[in-house]
Amino acid sequence: MKVLLLGSGGREHALAWALSGSPLCDRLFIAPGNPGTALCGENVALDMDDHAALVAFALAEKIGLVVIGPEAPLVDGAADALRAAGVKAFGPSAAAARLEGSKSFTKELCAEAGIPTAAFARFDNAEAALRYVREKGAPIVVKADGLAAGKGVVVAQSLDEAQDAIAMMFGGGLGAAGAEVVIEEFLEGEEVSFFALCDGDAAIPLASAQDHKRVGDGDVGPNTGGMGAYSPAPALTPDLQRQVMDEIINPTVAAMKAKGAPFTGVFFAGLMLTREGPKLIEYNVRFGDPECEAIMPRLKTDLVAALLAACDGVLHDFDVRLWDRAALTVVMAANGYPGVVEKGSPIRGVEKAEAMDEVLVFHAGTALKDGALVANGGRVLAVTATAPTIAEAQRRAYAAVDAIDWPGGFCRRDIGWRALSR
Ligand code: AMP
Ligand code: GLY
After folding, report:
1. Ligand 2 centroid to 290 CA: how many Å?
2. Please, what are the domains in the chain?
3. How far is CA 205 from the centre of its chain?
């Protein structure tokens, strides 16, 4: 069958790599894609926000499965538009994507369904929010309600910081995303990402991973989209994973179904492993980036078959198998990231890195200029290695990073430190 994948990041290159390896996939299109996805299929210049154009392309090409990578088209209803036209799409409806698109929606669902999460209150004006944080004290967490491209969360260590965040959000610092603010209890523990596939009715575990959000070694500096990841996350033991399925994922599946907004797609649960057990920090309704780059190489099950099972509502008969190997991804970003970056710096040696044992180099913000690879964004490459242990995967990934000659970029040198210090 023909498959269409939407997106252009490192996540999409990893998905394209896995989709194109499926015997069920005869032809893969990626819209808009990047130079890495072009090695797995055909990039097409389609605008993801133009649902009519997506539907027209899918019908004209007789696409058997559309896989939607990023959150924005999901929240906008791209999956609804495709399904309404009779096209099979992997990804939640706009109504179900509220799990990521609206933090207050998720917090209320948790309260109704008894899902463990941080205590919270929501506010539509600064005065009441300020009164609340003064009463609760720091540390405390201030979040814009809407999608804010990763900038909508302030973990305030002091009352001053919390007050500044409230003033910034209600002052319009994040645009419409900050019109409503959620204030949360600060959760202490180790953070892990957990992924589960869902067909609206049943959910099955996919994999765990751990991201590294801060830009600097030792988890310092500003937040980023993610500087590296590994999978599995040993902190999420099999017992804890069962607890997460029982107490968090399955109650969410049931609650969404009861609301008339059944969830089809992948749950990406951000979890805090607290002393009282796993608690939900937030849901995303898509694969994580860079978590996806560390999960796809571990997948033994055919990805197309798994995503079709989710679309067709037959996950209860399905079972995802992983190779018994660890994977670790180091993100190489352009100098200046997550601030202003320069585009166009030349990148050499990617082929040398890719030729190394069990190494995959996924492209994110790259471009081709006169046939040569150049940087074209903040996060640029996701260098991934697999091995029997996280320690060995880390060694291989950094050996591959060191084979890449890119003076215009940098990476963290400590990806995996939490797992290795256990
Ligand atoms: P987000 O941008 O929503 O992924 O959140 C950014 C980060 O803020 C999360 O990955 C957590 O590390 C942190 N965070 C969010 N909520 C809480 C909380 N209630 N307690 C502690 N840390 C939190
Ligand atoms: N790595 C975090 C995210 O994809 O949101």
Report:
1. 7
2. 2-91 (3.40.50.20), 125-179 (3.30.1490.20), 190-317 (3.30.470.20), 326-421 (3.90.600.10)
3. 16
- Kindly report the pTM of this predicted structure: 0.94
Q: What CA–CA distance (Å, rounded) separates 208 from 262?
A: 23
DSSP state of 186: P
Q: Which residues contact 115 (CB under 8 A, 6 or more apart)?
A: 109, 247, 248, 251, 252, 280
**What's the pLDDT score for residue 176?**
73
- Among the bound ligands, the one closest to the CA of 182: 1
In angstroms, the CA 20 to CA 29 distance is: 10
Name residues contacting ligand 2 (CB within 6 A).
211, 226, 284, 288-289, 291
State the distance from the centre of ligand 1 to the C-alpha of 114, rounded, in angstroms: 20
Do 286 and 91 meet the contact criterion of CB atoms below 8 Å apart?
yes
**Closest-lying ligand 1 atom to the alpha carbon of residue 191:** 12
- Which two three-digit tokens encode residue 279? 């608690």
Structure tokens at 340: 């202003």
Instruction: State in Å: Cα 187 to ligand 1 middle.
Output: 9
Question: Measured between alpha carbons, how far apart are the two ends of the chain, in Å?
Answer: 44
The H or E element spanning position 391 is helix 390-403
Question: Ligand nearest 145 Cα, by number?
Answer: 1
What pLDDT, in 10s, does the model give residues 266-308? 999 999 999 999 999 999 999 999 999 999 999 999 999 999 9
Atom of ligand 2 nearest to the CA of 229: 1
Q: How far is the CA of 191 from the centre of ligand 1 (A)?
A: 9
